[in-house]
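Much of what follows relies on a compact textual record of a protein's fold. A record is reproduced here so that you can trace the correspondence yourselves:

. . .
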Amino acid sequence: MIDYCSLKQTLEAKLAELIERAEGIEEVLSEPGDKDWEENAISKENDQALVAIENAIEVEIRDIKLAIKRIDSGEYGSCVGCHQPIAKARLEALPWASTCVRCSA
């Protein structure tokens, strides 16, 4: 049996951590560029990497928020694709998983 209260707390803590990381990236990306064009070019390359990381974080934030909503609605643990139970091992590895392994492929 899954302890939904504990799981929700874990997801909320992870969500807070990711939001803080995303805000930190936004802060770095909003800094003005360097006047030296070579330094600015390097900075732009770094910015592209940060944007990719930020995009991945945003996806994870969205998935965690959806998992919390599924816990609250009693739908957590059921695949949104086939409506079958998601394997416990999958949920332990990826608590915000919304699909079973078969539907995620």
User: Anything to note?
Assistant: The two ends are 26 Å apart (CA to CA). Residues 4-74 form one domain.
